[in-house]
Amino acid sequence: MDSPDELDLVFDGAVFDTRSGQSRALDRYARAHPAAPGSDDALTLDALQHSRFHIVRVLRRHEIAGLVTEDTVTHELLWLMDEGLEGTARSGMGLATRLLRVTGFYMTTGAAVPVTADVLKEAIASRSAWRSEPPSRVVNDPRFPEAVYAAAIRQGEMQFMQFRDPQ
User: Fold this and answer.
1) CATH number at residue 140
2) What would the pLDDT profile of 148-165 be if each residue is shown by its tens digit?
3) Which residue range(s) make up the domain with 152?
4) Could you tell me if 12 and 23 are in contact, meaning their C-beta atoms sit under 8 angstroms apart?
5) pLDDT by residue (tens digit) across 71-92?
6) Using N-to-C axis directions, what is the helix angle for 117-125 and 144-154, rounded to 10°?
7) pLDDT level of residue 1 (50, 70, 90 thresholds)
8) Least enclosed by CB within 10 Å: which of 72, 75, 85, 130?
């Protein structure tokens, strides 16, 4: 890793990804520390457990707050609430990130990388089976986020990212 910000990508994989035959750290946590039904903690944990990896394109600022993005696979418009991205993302920018849905809008789970066509080509080329798969299957493969993160680092895209505490 060339920057401490790239460590956020490692944390993302540690929390949300699984290795063959193992459960995700997030699911093990949920089993060990069940939240009270209907609580904010339960809502948040459920949203985290159902988060999905997306490749999105920034379309514009949302009129209330956040960004309007387009999922590049499903072409669904997503209202993305992320204070850091709202202040820095440019229209047309591509991002790879896990998103969780919360009552009408989406939030990132923290890690995001800029993606270009070259990053996606390299990530897809890293597994021969992905070359013939439809995009919806590739993006939902649990190994895909790691491949995209690695390609973004190799392509130098992480030099444009800096994760900051909103404070």
Assistant:
1) 2.40.50.140
2) 999 999 998 877 665 555
3) 4-160
4) no
5) 999 999 999 998 888 888 899 9
6) 130
7) low
8) 75
Per residue in 113-162, pLDDT (tens digit) is 999 999 999 999 999 999 999 999 999 998 999 999 999 999 988 776 65
Domain-embedded: residue 166? no
Residue pair 151/125 in contact by the 8 Å Cβ criterion: no
6, containing H or E segment:
none
- 165 belongs to a structural domain: no
Record the tokens describing residue 15, joined without a space. 């929390």
| Residue found under tokens 């988060």 | 51
| Closest by CA position to 146, among listed 164, 122, 165, 129 | 122
158 DSSP assignment: G
Number of domains in the chain: 1
User: Is 12 part of a structural domain of the chain?
Assistant: yes
Q: Give the closest residue to 98 by CA, choosing from 88, 86, 112.
A: 112
- What is the model's pTM? 0.85
pLDDT over threshold 70, residue 105: yes
The two beta strands, 77-81 and 67-71, are antiparallel
Instruction: Evaluate whether 61 touches 86 at the Cβ level (below 8 Å).
Output: yes
The CA distance from 111 to 101, in Å, is 16
